[in-house]
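Severity: low
Component: inverse-folding endpoint
Summary: output formatting inconsistent between runs
Steps to reproduce: submit the following structure tokens with default settings.
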């Protein structure tokens, strides 16, 4: 891949699910990890290729998850991007 970027998460803050788009030439597996503000991994999943530019990814948190600040970390090969999301019950 030459370029990789994730869009800003929306809606943010969120209360049931959050979305973001994968932008770039994506031809390998994409790893998505969710971390608490303390650095604990909350969830992890993979998005498998082939993916078109602008592919939407959705995360639905477990119903037991508490309100707070979390981080979405997206890794594709050597590319990595992280952004903050706010979960409100």
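Observed output (run 2 of 3):
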């Amino acid at each position: 891949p030459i370029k990789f970027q994730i869009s800003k998460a929306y809606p943010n803050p969120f209360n049931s699910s959050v979305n973001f788009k994968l932008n770039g030439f994506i031809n390998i597996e994409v790893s998505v990890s969710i971390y608490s503000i303390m650095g604990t991994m909350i969830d992890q999943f993979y998005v498998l290729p082939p993916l078109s530019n602008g592919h939407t990814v959705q995360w639905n948190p477990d119903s037991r998850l508490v309100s707070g600040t979390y981080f979405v970390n997206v890794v594709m090969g050597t590319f990595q991007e992280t952004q903050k999301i706010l979960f409100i019950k």
